[in-house]
Design brief:
The chain is built from four helices and no strands. The protein is mainly α. The longest helix is centred in the middle third of the chain and has 14 residues, at 22-35. The protein starts with 7 loop residues before the first helix and ends with a helix.
Length: 65
C-alpha cells in the first residue's frame, strides 16, 4: 500500500477530487515518515479529512489496486 504515495493519480485524486491542499498532504506525508502509519489514516487522525472523505480514499484505493 506504500506505492500509492508516489502515484500521481492518487495525489491528483487527493488534490482535485477531495480538494485537499498540498500543504495538508505534505503534513501527513511528513508524519508518515515519523510514525510509518498509512497515509489515509494519518490524514484522518490529524483532522485533514472527514470520515466520509476517508471512506472515499479507501474506495479509490480499492478500485485502483
Amino acid at each position: 500500500m506504500v506505492t500509492y504515495l508516489s502515484d500521481p493519480k492518487f495525489l491528483y485524486f487527493l488534490q482535485h477530487e477531495l480538494e485537499l491542499p498540498r500543504e495538508d498532504i505534505a503534513v501527513a506525508m511528513k508524519k508518515k515518515e515519523l510514525s510509518d502509519g498509512p497515509l489515509p489514516m494519518l490524514l484522518w487522525q490529524y483532522g485533514l479529512v472527514s470520515l466520509e472523505q476517508l471512506e472515499r480514499i479507501f474506495d479509490w484505493l480499492e478500485d485502483h489496486n
